[in-house]
Amino acid sequence: MNKYLFFVGICFLIFVLSSNSFDFTGDPYLPAAPFDYETELFPDHLLVSPWGENDSTAFDHITNDGATLGRVLFFDELLSANDDMSCATCHRQELSFSDDVPFSEGANNNTFRNSMKLNDLAWSSHAAFFWDISQPDLRTAIKLPLADPNEIGASDINVVINKMNATSYYPNLFYQAFGTSLITDSLIVEALLQFIGSMTTFESKFDKSHDIFSGVTLSLEENRGRTIFEANCELCHTDGNSFNQRFNFVHNNGLVEDSTDMGVGMLDSTLFFLFKPPSLRNIELSAPFMHDGRFATLEEVIDHYAEGAINNDWNSVPPGGFGYSVQERADLLAFLKTLTDYTLVTHEKWSDPFVPPTSNDPSQVDVSDLSLFPNPTADVLQVSFDNRQNLMTYVQIFDAGGRLVKKSSGHRSLISLNVGHLPTGNYVATITQEDANKSASFVIAR
Ligand code: HEC
Ligand code: HEC
Q1: Smallest Cα–Cα separation from 345: which of 297, 279, 285?
Q2: Mean pLDDT across the stretch 433-443?
């Protein structure tokens, strides 16, 4: 071969390797039998509460196949104009589907407001989405980012549908979910609605403490924080069991105003500086806080309510704040942390399906990803593990002398145990699913 042809050949090879023609998004990794999304149920204390019943039909529209499709859509960058962004870019599972920066990076500019958590939206007010409650319906709140050129940017949904039709997975997933492989924008929204609707936080310590069989109780500090919350915060953040926006009210909580963002005032000039109070469920995980992400930590939020509030509409937060002591601030913080549900932020059924799962054989009992937290712990131990089939799992706690000192069981992937009565020292937790078991050690310290 002459040298010239060899040179041309190399150039061609470099061109082919560097061009995008080899770029492809892999297929999602999905379990052979879908995860369970449809048996989502309100715990009793939420369904019937002294403040009125929650809508027991809130989860009825969810099917396992519909939510599975929604999961794939939520994480799929193919839906964006440039194949580089998905809902999960700004709504990350480990942050209860929010982002960790004040403003997220959009396709062209940073977003105007702080990205919001997506937990518990199916049963929150059905008429108040976004910080300025401009979206009266969860369907439009889902549809807007799909078309927003600074977000998913699929301004021409038909281009996206063509890309989806060309994949090996979408036609089949639509068929499974809706009995038709004809992809439409309203079915895309419907599937996303089912997936987002399944994101609840009913495994939080607070919720578990209402289940007498769980053995979980709030500590003295947490209970003191709850009392302060009921006295000062509940008015806007709704009743002590839901912590969720159930009415489309907007408020001013005494933040120092920023003239670039007037909240609902941008739509109605009589409502300057009013904003939606977001759900406080999983609030521990969604820093930074407020519509502009101005507070980096929950401590800063509590300092605002304690001493930083300025004059506001009805002064429900007194100007100058509630004047909490150091102890009261710690109590409130401890209480807010009882609203965290680690299952939602760790379970594979809400995770990115384009990342290979640690174990993708659903027929196999797998107890490999056991984790114990906090470790050391003072009063409650959270035991989290893989439980894609919702198998009955038993937890046993042994002390340093090998004596069984506590046991519990459950069907979810997180079991909370009250160890507050056990002496300080080293312990071992063993979980058992069918014949598989796994142990890990932890420390009780006070
Ligand atoms: C570039 C970042 C970004 C992307 C991508 C994005 N979002 Fe958002 N999302 C936000 C921001 C910022 C807000 C708050 C908007 C506001 O209040 O003005 C928000 C708010 C929401 C809300 C309202 C929540 C509430 O409590 O009111 C929903 C629902 C939502 N997004 C769903 C989605 C879905 C579904 C997708 C994918 C189709 C998506 N988002 C993609 C940044 C993003
Ligand atoms: C007058 C009504 C009102 C009262 C009382 C109130 N809040 Fe708020 N809260 C709001 C509003 C409105 C927002 C959103 C404000 C914004 O971003 O502009 C908010 C935001 C928050 C946030 C941040 C949410 C997020 O996702 O960024 C936390 C945490 C919070 N409040 C906790 C509390 C606590 C704790 C108390 C009691 C000490 C309390 N609130 C009392 C109305 C209130």
Answers
A1: 285
A2: 86
